[in-house]
Structures are given as structure tokens and as C-alpha cells.
Specification:
Radius of gyration: 17 Å
CATH superfamily: P-loop containing nucleotide triphosphate hydrolases
CATH class: Alpha Beta
Structural class: alpha/beta
Strand order of the largest sheet: 3-4-2-5-1-6-7-8
Distance between the termini: 56 Å
Number of strands: 8
Helix content: 40-55%
Bound molecules: adenosine-5'-triphosphate, magnesium ion
Largest sheet: 8 strands, mixed
Order of helices and strands: HHHEHEHHHEEHHEHEHEE
Number of helices: 11
Oligomer: single chain
Number of domains: 1
Shape: globular
Length: 243
């Protein structure tokens, strides 16, 4: 009886949160364990440094930035940390869909409307134990918004409120958003997806991040190939060959 109830509950959760939130829907899976290992590695790079604001990016599209950001946010929240995940990909936002929450207002609203406060746009997702700020309506000029003084103020306020502030970003090579945010935040987690990322693009992304003196904390290797069964096969984490 109990088991059956649990199973139904889990199905509901999967339907609501989607299969990509594996650390919530399947916390005992190997992939969820790999996300916890990535969390540990990120924590190692945080020792003795006050790292609070981290961006997630990659060289190109479809590499798993949003998936990794959402799951890492969730495993940090599991540790009792006060975490906020922000959809700073105002070009291709996905966070509201992933967590089945509304996106009528969010980061773009916060930046463009001075009368809007952070608490007006934050949504708490109970299953994840996370505060979330969705992208808000897609603006015509995302880079300008991110580059604004208002954005600096928002980041400052988020730093004062949360233990950890995580930003889901667009890819580095096509647009400047991630480069801009790398200059305003403490660290970058770079996602590389096997068989999707191009070596040339990875090199270019590294140059672009170096150009703005980004603090690349590490690289998440998203080893899954494009699969039809939607299973998540492998995540690894390593350090870049820099100092
Ligand atoms: N390891 C994996 N195994 C299977 N599917 C995956 C894996 N990683 C990501 N995906 C799927 O690939 C798609 C793209 O992932 P995601 O949205 O996280 O990438 P992204 O880098 O944020 O993309 P974009 O550049 O569009 O923002 C999603 O449908 C996601 O569920
Ligand atoms: Mg994305």
C-alpha cells in the first residue's frame, strides 16, 4: 500500500518536474550521485575563497547547461544551503518549463523595472527546496540588460540574501552574455557535451573567457550522446589545465 503510494507520488513529480531534474526525481540514481560529486568538486574550489555567484555556460547550444545548472542548484539546496537559480538565458529560457512554474515576470522584469523587487519575482519550488528567478519576458537586448548597473545592484542584493547564486547562461561563442556575466560573478562552470561540442568552438570559448579573465572553476563533461531513450548516462567533472 505504502509502496504504491510512493510510486504514484514519484510519477506525479516526474510529470511535474520533467525527466531532466534527475537529482529530484531519482535521487538514488548513478547520475544523481555524479551531480553530488560535481557539487563536492565545486566546493573544493570554493575553499578559502568567497565564491557565491557562479555561472553555467558552454561553447555552443544544447550541451546541457540548463540541465546541469538546475541539478547542481538542487543538490546544493539538499545540503540546506539557501540557493537561488536564475535563468539568465533570456534568449532561450528553459528554467520555468523545467520546474513547471510561470514566467510572466522574472529577471528581465527585475532589470527593466526599478519598482520591482527581488521578492516580487522569486518563486519557491518546494520539491527542489530552491528559490528560482525565471527569465521574464524575452527582451530585445539581453546583453545590454546584463551589462547594466541595475544588474550589478541585483547581483549585490542576491549575494547578501543567499548562500549561493547560480546563473543559467547562453553559450559563449555566439553571444556576449556569458562573457559579461563572467566579469560580474565569482566563477564559471563550463559544460562540454560529448559529440555535440566542437573542438574549435571549445577553444574559442576558452579564449573568450580568458579575454575577460573569467575564473573557470571546472568543466562538466556531459558524456551522454544524443539518445532517444532520454536516459542520462554520464556526468564527469574536471579542472581546466590553467593554474
Ligand atoms: N546527459 C544527458 N543525457 C540525455 N539527455 C540530455 C543530457 N544532457 C542534456 N540532455 C537533454 O538535451 C537537451 C539540451 O539540454 P539543456 O537544455 O540542458 O542544454 P543547454 O546547453 O541549456 O541548451 P541551450 O543552449 O539551448 O540553452 C535537453 O532536452 C536535455 O534534457
Ligand atoms: Mg539552456
Amino acid at each position: 500500500m505504502f509502496r504504491k503510494k510512493k510510486k504514484i507520488q514519484q510519477l506525479d513529480q516526474e510529470q511535474r518536474l520533467g525527466t531532466s531534474l534527475i537529482t529530484i526525481t531519482k535521487p538514488n540514481s548513478i547520475v544523481a550521485e555524479q551531480f553530488r560529486t560535481i557539487r563536492t568538486n565545486i566546493q573544493f574550489s570554493m575553499i578559502d575563497k568567497d565564491l557565491k555567484t557562479i555561472i553555467f555556460t558552454s561553447s555552443g547550444p544544447y550541451e546541457g547547461k540548463s540541465t546541469v545548472a538546475a541539478n547542481i542548484a538542487s543538490v546544493f539546496a539538499d545540503q540546506g544551503k539557501k540557493v537561488v537559480l536564475i535563468d539568465a538565458d533570456m534568449r532561450k529560457p528553459t528554467v520555468s518549463k523545467t520546474f513547471s512554474i510561470h514566467n510572466t515576470e522574472g529577471l528581465s522584469t527585475l532589470i527593466t523595472s526599478r519598482s520591482t523587487r527581488i521578492e516580487d519575482v522569486v518563486q519557491y519550488v518546494d520539491e527542489a527546496g530552491l528559490d528560482i528567478i525565471t527569465s521574464g519576458p524575452v527582451p530585445p537586448n539581453p546583453s545590454e540588460l546584463l551589462n547594466s548597473n541595475r544588474m550589478n545592484e541585483i547581483i549585490k542584493e542576491l549575494e547578501d540574501t543567499y548562500d549561493l547564486v547560480l546563473f543559467d547562461m547562453p553559450p559563449v561563442v555566439s553571444v556576449t552574455d556569458a562573457q559579461i556575466m563572467a566579469t560580474k560573478t565569482d566563477g564559471v562552470v563550463f559544460v562540454v557535451r560529448r559529440n555535440i561540442a566542437h573542438t574549435e568552438d571549445i577553444k574559442q570559448a576558452k579564449e573568450l573567457l580568458d579575454m575577460v579573465h573569467a575564473n573557470v572553476l571546472g568543466v562538466v563533461f556531459n558524456g551522454a550522446e544524443k539518445r532517444t531513450d532520454r536516459s542520462y548516462s554520464y556526468y564527469g567533472y574536471g579542472y581546466t589545465d590553467e593554474e
